[in-house]
Design brief:
Layout (H helix, E strand, L loop, with lengths): L1 E11 L2 H5 L4 E7 L5 H9 L16 E9 L5 E8 L9 H18 L1 H7 L5 E7 L6 H12 L3 E7 L6 H15 L4 E2 L8 H12 L1
Parallel strand pairs: 2-4, 2-5, 5-6, 6-7
Antiparallel strand pairs: 1-3, 3-4
Length: about 200
């Protein structure tokens, strides 16, 4: 596959603004500073998504439209959606609650797209920090997403920071936490990105 183009299609406070777009949307959900924006940049091979060391910097719903060449004659278009992070955010509890509300509104607004996509549950990427498996916030997010009837694909970020033995322990812990194999990736060195694209395309195309 080849990334043919990528653009910021929408940056909005209102979930309804992005839910109205007809391209299949795959949201990235995760704690603040888990690396959602960095992973999007790594996947699209462009620095479109704004990143920051400060947790809670993304306070809008940012949607990136990506056109992909699957073969010489076949292309597909999908959108990666960077949602505000849950958990700690600069600005304290009030700001974190605003983030949670926007994520909830987004999935409520996306219910209309479910019918257009067919009976298959809509996919969502749940990003968890591979260095900190088993956090209550991540467990709660997984349960909440599953309760909404979404197909959750769990991804462990920042895998490059772990030594081999640590990585193996994190893999086992994350697999146990989610009840299914978790793909470990690194936006920094590219580990797992090809496999993640295959996972995304398997559920999206």
């Amino acid at each position: 596959m080849k990334i043919l183009s990528a653009e910021l299609a929408s940056s909005a406070v209102s979930a309804g603004q992005v839910a109205r777009l007809t391209d299949l949307q795959i949201a990235l959900v995760g704690r603040s500073n888990v690396g959602k924006s960095s992973l999007i940049n790594a996947l699209i091979r462009r620095k479109l998504a704004r990143t920051s060391r400060a947790p809670g910097k993304t306070d809008l719903i940012n949607l990136y439209r990506v056109r992909i060449g699957l073969t010489a004659t076949r292309t597909e278009t999908l959108c990666l959606v960077d949602l505000p992070g849950y958990g700690y955010a600069r600005g304290g509890t009030t700001r974190a609650q605003v983030f949670a509300a926007r994520a909830s509104e987004y999935f409520d607004a996306l219910e209309g797209q479910r019918a257009a996509h067919g009976p298959t549950p809509l996919p969502v990427l749940l990003l968890v920090d591979a260095r900190h498996p088993g956090l209550d916030a991540d467990r709660g997010a997984l349960e909440w997403l599953v309760s909404r009837g979404l197909r959750v694909l769990a991804v462990g970020t920042k895998a490059d920071t772990l030594a081999r033995a640590e990585r193996q322990r994190a893999q086992r812990a994350l697999d146990e936490q989610t009840g299914s194999p978790v793909l470990l990736v690194s936006a920094k060195n590219g580990d797992g990105l090809k496999e993640l694209w295959r996972l995304i395309l398997d559920v999206a195309v």
